[in-house]
Amino acid sequence: MSAAAPVRPETAPAVPLTPRWWFRPVPLARIAVFRAIAYLFIPVDVFLTTAWVKAHADVPTEFYQPLLVGRLLHLPTPTHTVVLVVQWALVVAAVAAATGRAPRVLGWAVFLLYAEWMVIAMSYGKVDHDRIAYLVALAVLPTVGVARWRDRRSSQAAGFASAAILVTVMLTYFLAAWAKMRFGGWDWATGSTLTRAVVRRGTDLSLWTLDVAWLLPAAQWVMLVFEFASPLVLLVRSDRARIGLVVFLLGFHVMVYAGVGIIFLPHCIAILSILPWERLRRDRERAPGPAVTAPAGGGDPPG
Predict the structure, then answer these.
(1) Which of 21, 8, 279, 278 shows the shortest CA–CA distance to 164?
(2) Nearest-5° angle of CA 129, CA 132, CA 136?
(3) How confident is the model at residue 17 (pLDDT cuts 50, 70, 90)?
(4) Residue 27: phi, psi to the nearest 5?
(5) 115 to 42, 75, 87, 95, 264: CA distances (angstroms)
(6) SS3 for 28?
(7) Could you tell me how far CA 52 lies from the centroid of its own chain?
């Protein structure tokens, strides 16, 4: 992966999943903004969305059945001390990493600590599939190195990180559909999967669907088609298409949350990596306003 280089227009689109596509230069400012979002989400996740993980500190250790990665790496059994140390070390490292300082050292520390946090979370009989893209994001962000919000350069390292997250987001949907077919077969689409979900977890916004006999089965087919068609997201190139894709994906998850109270927040954070965050700075510079005179010695204007 090369160092940062000026943005250059491409003469032809790169074919998805080819070496040229994987390392297509991406603005460093995009990584800088997303990196801050990804790291600042960790305290929210640790203290709010997965606050239940801390409860494992008081669970008898004989109930701990480590995931394969935990067995291979001989990770420590989650005692009370281990859980608390991992929790607070993770939060402190994430807040420090969000500043952009020491991006490799702090970034790798965050990734390793969050991976251990997930092993502690998922080694008691339940494994969630909404965290793989976010975990991959934490793994590739340190490989980019220094990236600042005002950095107008692009780099292949940033391009690889963005591509890796995008592919994992796509695979989350595609493999979800594959799992439905593997374990449920076509009965998943023709049965009462969503009906059961609405009966158990429905809200005032979704209970009315139980009175429309064809609606929920049709929605199951739509979900399967959407998930199996997810590789098409790899064809997205323009900034406008990226924004539209993010709005669509986040809208889908908001709709699911409004209907049955299920939200995949870490996955939604990973989706935000698709956005062209560098345009925030570009649009601000283009906005009309009073003229600013650069200092006599050169350099950036104040502010």
Answers:
(1) 21
(2) 175
(3) confident
(4) -55, 135
(5) 12, 11, 11, 17, 17
(6) helix
(7) 21
The one-character DSSP state at 155 is E
Q: Tell me the C-alpha distance between 277 and 265, whole Å.
A: 19
Give me the percent of the chain exceeding a pLDDT of 90.
70
Is 227:177 a contact under the CB 8 Å cutoff? yes
pLDDT (average), residues 188-201: 92
User: Are 264 and 298 contacting, i.e. CB atoms less than 8 angstroms apart?
Assistant: no
One-letter identity of residue 135? L
* Sign of the Cα pseudo-torsion (93, 91, 118, 248, in order): negative
DSSP E strand stretches across the chain = 26-27, 154-155
Between CA 243 and CA 178 the distance in angstroms is 27
Of 114, 124, 130, the C-alpha closest to 77 is: 124
Residues 6+ apart with CB under 8 A from 62: none
Closest alpha carbon to 133 in 196, 41, 71, 209: 41
- Helix 103-122 and helix 28-44: axis angle, to 10°? 40
CA nearest to 232, candidates 176, 168, 170: 170
Number of Cβ atoms within 10 Å of the Cβ of 191: 14
Task: Report the 10 Å Cβ neighbour count for 174.
Answer: 16
Mean pLDDT of 173-189: 91
Distance CA 81, CA 184 (A): 41
Going by C-alpha positions, the residue among 271, 261, 189 that lies closest to residue 222 is 189
Model pLDDT, residue 302:
34
The secondary structure of 164-188 as a DSSP string is HHHHHHHHHHHHHHHHHHHHTTTHH
Q: Amino acid identity of 149?
A: W
